[in-house]
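Predict structure. Input: Putative pterin-4-alpha-carbinolamine dehydratase, 96 residues.
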Amino acid sequence: MAERLSAEARRQALGGLPGWGEVQGRDAIGKSFIFKDFNEAFGFMTRAALAAEKMDHHPEWRNVYKTVEVVLSTHDAGGVTALDIALAKTMNAIAG
Ligand code: H2B
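Output follows.
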């Protein structure tokens, strides 16, 4: 099973992940993606969902019009692991 990252490892990983930051009050990372319109936002969600399913690692997320708020945490580990960092990277790549 993936292990929770140390605070230092998480901080370092976040340094290479534009737009991502710590979620206040829990062991998780988050980002608000803002797209041109709903079509772009939902297209992102569709591609990210397929990637997440392939990784067997799933986001907590919320869409309002052209904004997608994402929170990543590994529920099985109770915090941020390398799986969250990998999914965050994939999401950044999909968003372009
Ligand atoms: N996604 C996330 N974010 N955290 C998990 O711990 C997790 C998951 N566990 N997706 C996976 C599914 C697990 O429940 C299955 C059985 O592999």
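The chain has three helices and four strands.
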